[in-house]
Amino acid sequence: MTIHEKPLQVVIGIIGNSKGEFLLSTRHTKPIYDDYLEFPGGKVKSHETNEDALIRELREEITIHAEEFYAMDSIVCLFDNLNIELHPYRVKSFSGKPMANEEEDIIWVSKEHLKEKKILPGSIEVFDNLLS
Questions:
Q1: CA angle 91-93-94, nearest 5°?
Q2: Element holding 79 (H helix, E strand)
Q3: How far is CA 70 from CA 6, 51, 57, 65, 76, in A?
């Protein structure tokens, strides 16, 4: 398999709560890394801005509407022979209650326990930024 030249554009939402925990989703239904956790998000469609994709993905995956958010530094990484450009967004406020909506589960994980979890490659740099 060859590595794609142009990176696939992916957005993720970094959502925290008042207890200092972050929202992660399982990957049980995915063909690879099925025992890992990831931030909710997904691919940017060709007609979307990153921000529109973030709002759509969070609505589809965890049934919330992101209201206030800001971009963090983008990360280019290799994921299963795909070149991915990961666009993390720190979600400061949202409406609705987070609920898993795509046959996956969601969990809240404290900063102290993030390093103990199996996290999808590419998100490690995001975690390092959160922990610093």
A1: 95
A2: strand 75-79
A3: 24, 9, 16, 14, 18
Number of domains in the chain: 1
**Is 2 part of a structural domain of the chain?**
no
CATH number at 88 reads 3.90.79.10
Cα-atom radius of gyration of the chain, to the nearest Å?
Answer: 14
Which pLDDT score, from 0 to 100, does residue 1 have? 41
Torsion over CA: 21, 73, 38, 127 (sign): negative
Distances (CA, A) of 35 to 16, 65, 86, 103: 22, 27, 20, 14
> Per residue in 94-110, pLDDT tens?
999 999 987 889 999 99
pTM: 0.89
DSSP helix/strand/coil, 41: strand
Domain annotation covers residue 73: yes
How far, in Å, CA of 69 to CA of 71, rounded? 7
Range of the domain at 40: 8-131
**Structural domain contains residue 65:** yes
